[in-house]
Write a structure and sequence with these properties.
By secondary structure, the chain is mainly alpha-helical. 75% of the residues lie in helices and 3% in strands. It is built from eleven helices and three strands. The protein has helices spanning 3-29, 41-48, 52-64, 86-107, 110-129, 132-149, 153-165, 167-175, 183-197, 201-225, 229-232, and strands at residues 38-39, 68-70, 76-78. It has a three-stranded antiparallel sheet with strand order 1-3-2. Strand 2 and strand 3 (76-78) form a beta hairpin. Helix 4 packs across helix 9 and helix 5 (110-129) packs antiparallel against helix 9. The longest helix has 27 residues, at 3-29.
């Protein structure tokens, strides 16, 4: 096969893989595909009008994101959410919010503040659009930028994993507000930026604790009110 023709086919294959990945990822994060849902490569190939190769590549990428699980018999399903260990997850999340924000106040550079503010601006726009998936992505980027400013690779790695593991939980959180997030949560981000910029370590720590704990409290309250939620997760 001529090199140019092979190159065109490769681009189409990669494009098809990305297309399948983007749609499935959104459906998993939106909980349209609930945890534990089986994934049929043949049906997906027919649905997206592609061969099974880009579907497999998309599933491999989703597996690396922790959103899809491949079983020993090579079947795939949407990864579950470990509801039994949510208390441990909440404790670790609150701690990492506090530690990373406190360290950012101590170690940040001017360039870090530029990046943090840019992500905050994107988060505000997502809130205004009531775009839950964009809120999840931009909120993650905002807090990861803060963690990067803290200059501790170990904390950054743990916090990144926690944020990624909690994406579907955060979707439930935003859904509890019908995707109309109260303005006070945007203001909390701004207050955290101000504390970081002024290098007020204790204030940064306190603000991060309040910010994280209200997320945990809201989700726990939602779960206690909705008996079907644990089943859905």
């Amino acid at each position: 096969m001529p090199t140019i023709e092979r190159s065109v086919m490769e681009r189409k294959r990669v494009s098809g893989s990305q297309y399948v990945y983007d749609i499935l990822r959104n459906e998993i994060l939106e909980l349209t595909l609930p945890p534990g849902s089986p994934i049929d490569e043949v049906r997906l190939a027919k649905r997206f009008e592609v061969s099974r190769t880009p579907v497999r590549e998309a599933l491999v990428k989703l597996a690396s994101d922790g959103l899809v699980e491949t079983l020993p018999n090579r079947a795939s399903l949407v990864s579950g959410i470990d509801t039994l260990n949510l208390r441990s997850f909440y404790d670790a999340l609150v701690l990492m919010y506090r530690v990373t924000t406190r360290l950012a106040a101590q170690h940040h550079s001017p360039e870090d503040l530029i990046a943090i503010r840019a992500h905050q601006s994107e988060f505000e726009q997502a809130v205004e659009r009531e775009d839950a998936l964009a809120m999840i992505a931009t909120n993650r980027a905002f807090h990861i930028a803060i963690a990067e400013a803290g200059r501790n690779a170990y904390f950054l790695g743990l916090f990144t994993k926690l944020m990624d593991d909690g994406r579907r939980i955060l979707r439930v959180y935003y859904g509890s507000y019908e995707d109309r997030l109260p303005k006070r949560f945007v203001d909390e981000h701004k207050a955290m930026i101000e504390a970081i910029e002024s290098r007020d370590l204790q204030k940064a720590d306190d603000l991060a604790a309040v910010h994280a704990e209200q997320i945990v409290t809201q989700i726990q309250s939602l779960m206690s009110r909705r008996s079907d939620l644990d089943i859905a997760l």
